[in-house]
Each structure stands twice: as C-alpha cells, then as structure tokens.
Amino acid sequence: MRRVAVWFGASGGSKHEEKTMKLGALVLLAAVFVGGAAHADRLDDIKKAGVLRVAAFDSNPPFGYVDEKSRQIVGLDVDYAKAFADKLGVKLELRPTNPANRVPLLTSGNVDLVLANFTITDERAKQVDFSVPYFSSGQQFLAKKGVLSSPDQLNSLRIGADKGTVNEIVLRRDFPGATIVSYDDTPFAFTALRNGNVQAITQDGPKLVGLLANVPDKENYEIPAFTISNDYIGVGIPKGETALVEFVNETLTELEASGKAQEIYDVWFGPNSKTPLPRLFKIGDAKTN
Amino acid sequence: MNFDVVWNNLPYLLWGAWPQGPLGGAALTIVLSLFSGIASAVIGLVLGVWLFMARGIVHTVLLLFLSFFRSIPVLMLIFWTYFLLPVALGFSVPELATVVCALAFIGGAYLAHGVAAGLRSVGGGQWEAGISLGLGRWRVLRLIILPQSLRRMAPSFVNQWVALIKDTSLAYVIGVPELSFVATQVNNRAMVYPAEIFLFVAAVYFVICGALDLVAGAVAGKEREHTRGDKAAKTAS
C-alpha cells in the first residue's frame, strides 16, 4: 500500500503536465483526509450516518446465508448484527464476505464490523480488534462414511480447507503429513469432497453440521467425533476503535443477561432447529485454552 | 438434470434481492456492463486520439499510463482500488464505482491503442488532401479521418465490450452481487446442482453478449447504407 502512494506521489512531483499536477493535488487532498480520518471515532460516525455496515457470510448456514424466499442474508451472525444495529437505533447494511476478505474489509474501512464466524487469533489481533467471544466451536472434519475415525489418520489424507481460515493454519501446523488443498469457501470444499478430489474437509464443527443439514444425501457422510482445536468466535472491529469495542462487548453481555443470546442460539441451533447442538459456551465464560 | 433449482431462484439470479435490497444478478451485470462499456469507449476514444496526435514527452507519458492499465490484471485493479486506496489515500470508493472504474480504465487502455491504430490506418494522402483544402490538423481529424477509421475500429470495440461483459464477473472479489456471484450463493445453498445453475449462467452471458453483437451488427449495417446513400453523414457512428 505504501508503494502505491509513492508511485502516485513521484509522478505528481516530477512532471509539469497539467494532468500530473492534478494528480499531485489529489494526493495532497488525500493526505488531508487521512489526517482528518485518524481522529474520527467510528462509533460516532456510525450514529451520524445512521447505518451500521456489517460483513457477514453469504454461504455458510446457519451463520450467514442467502434465504431462498426472502433473498436476504440471514443467520446467527446476522441476528447478532441486528441486535447491534437496533441498540444503536441505526439501519443495518449487510455486505457478503468470504473467509479471505474479512480482514481487508476491516482494515480498508469498508465495513464497521465483521460477524462472519470470525475466529479470534493473536495473528489477526495485530490487524483488527476483537470483541469478547460470542460463540465457541471445535475444529472438526467431514468425510465419506468409514474414511476417518481418529486424528492419527489425518497425516495420510488429502484434506480440503477454506483459504484464510484458522482451520487451514492449525492443520498445516499440527499435521504436516496431510496434503492440504485450499478452497474459497466450505461449499466449494464440500464439492471437492463429493467429487473425490479430497478425502475429508475441515471446518468448525457447527459449520459442518449446518452444511451437512442441507445436503440431500447426507446419510453418505459423517462428522467423526473428535476435535483438533477449540476456537472462539468474536466480532471483528477496526483496529483502535476503543469506543466501538466497548459498545460491542457491552451489548453482547446485555444480550446474554437478557436471554436474547440464548434465543438467537435456539433459532439456529436449538432442539427444534435444522441443526440441533447443545450450547456449551455462553458469552462471558472463561476460555478453556 | 433438474432445473427446478434455477426456476425456484430465478428472480434472485435475474435481479438479486431487489426491490427489498440492492439490485443484483443478471440485471446488475447489465448495468455494470453498460456503464463501464460507455466509459471505456469514451476513455479509449479520447486517449486514442490524444495518443495519435501527441508528440514528445506527452506521448511518452500517455504510453506509460496506457501500459500501466494494460499490464495489470482487472482483478488486481479492483482489489487495489477497493482495499488499498482507503488505506493509502484515506477515502473509500463504493463497490460499484470501483468495478466500473477498473473496467473502464482497463478497457479504455486497450481501446486507445485500437483507436490510434485505426487512425494510423487512414492513408497519408487523406491528410495532405485535407490540409491542402486549408483545414487545420484537428478539423482534418474530425471531418475526414475519424469517420473513416471509426468504421474500421467498430469490430475491436465490440470485441472489447464482449470481454468487458464477461469481466464484470470479477466484481465477486469485493462482494458485488452480479450474476456469477449470486449464482455461487445459490449453488452453495443448493449444494448438488452446480451443472444446472452454471449452465443457466453461461446461457445468460451468451444472451447478453449475443444481444450486443446483434445490436452492433444492426447499427453497422444501417451505417453502411447511410454513408452509401448520403456522403454528408460524416458525424454519425
């Protein structure tokens, strides 16, 4: 990014063409904007604009996906996003995202929050801020029945992972013998599994459960009952926006206290949902790893 | 083959979440193509004429500018504009404007060379004839050279526009819900009908590009009749 700025700057200074002069002026103008933007507070900006811009998944039921009837993005992450917008009294604007886009969307300032099954990691925390976790899940695998039963087998398998996810990193680190193929998103990886390009795919357990629930021939697949890591999911927030982080954390705590967090969970993972899963983690619980 | 999945999602594939949400699907692909097509033609024409007329340092700067846009992938330019411009310069460009600008500048850079080549293809005798009639360089260009060369450039314009229609699918990288993006969403939910969904998508692109070809052909045909019948129609096309 620095190189881009230098490139524009250099051509602006060296030539006397009117065009390049204008470019130089543009750079100058931009510098003013940067100076101005650095002091602004994002929470105030959101209130002023009356719009909360949130990036959510569009292909990962039940966290975020496009509903066939309403043609809108819905899901657990979206319900949390709505709760934030409602508390602020602003309109919610959703942007579809994919695993690899989440950090750039925040660092470039194109969205205010990322709620897209975003695992909290130290590496990511260097570039973006995270809220307290609002969901927890273990990294699991999905394979055709009878292929995979224990983690020792992983080192000899071809495994599909989502590009830019923690799952991919953990797998590379802990199972160097495995052949890892990276895909744009989970449904893509699943198609590869179906076609026999890979023997298993990896993702957070609840995401795999959500995926399998929508597969017509789900009886041919299974999610072996072991996890290789425990992930905590948080809200991604632009770096250094302390007021916004505070607001998000406060709201999450309130949602848990009022029972609204449980309500949201039950819609997507409750006993009567398509993907019933017991709720083992509540907002405010201590992390166990 | 089970095309129910296409039928059930037809409105979403054709115009996205509109009118409850933003325009998407095939309609957005057409809108993006129209705007970037027109903008690329204007950029290509202006820069092409300029490249042809300019001499010395201006010519060199212009060549560098054009080669910059010709040598970077559309995907990279979209990505840079959307994710890096805000960090480098402090202001963000909306998604749709990003895509239209990237396609317009890259398409325009390609067209500019085509336009310059088209202008060069008109023989030197035409220039001499115009100048000996007492016309200035720019008037010769406007009245004599451009009308002849524009006809020769027409196929390369259509080529570029067709390429551009297909390149709108690269808008997926910043989450613009054009046709292939919404098709991927539907495919990801339906899971087991990729062949049906993407056959439909291919058919829609074929129809859009085919329609452009037909319109361009009809316009060119009319133009030929027009010029044969009436030599004064030099400002058309």
From TrEMBL, chain B:
Keywords, ordered alphabetically: Cell membrane, Membrane, Transmembrane, Transmembrane helix, Transport
Localization of this protein: Cell inner membrane; Cell membrane
Protein's GO biological process: amino acid transport
Record domain ABC transmembrane type-1: where: 26-216
Annotated CDD domains: TM_PBP2
Membrane-crossing residue ranges in chain numbering: 23-53, 60-85, 91-112, 197-221
Record bears the keyword Amino-acid biosynthesis: no
PROSITE patterns assigned: ABC_TM1
InterPro entries the record matches: AA_ABC_transptr_permease_3TM, ArtM/GltK/GlnP/TcyL/YhdX-like, MetI-like, MetI-like_sf
Keyword Translocase on entry: no
Entry membrane topology: Multi-pass membrane protein
Domain of life: Bacteria
Pfam families linked: BPD_transp_1
GO CC terms: ATP-binding cassette (ABC) transporter complex
GO molecular function, one term: transmembrane transporter activity
Family: Belongs to the binding-protein-dependent transport system permease family. HisMQ subfamily.
PANTHER family: AMINO ACID ABC TRANSPORTER PERMEASE (PTHR30614:SF21), MEMBRANE COMPONENT OF AMINO ACID ABC TRANSPORTER (PTHR30614)
Protein name per the record: Polar amino acid transport system permease protein
Organism in which the protein naturally occurs: Pseudochelatococcus contaminans
Lineage of the species this protein comes from: Bacteria, Pseudomonadati, Pseudomonadota, Alphaproteobacteria, Hyphomicrobiales
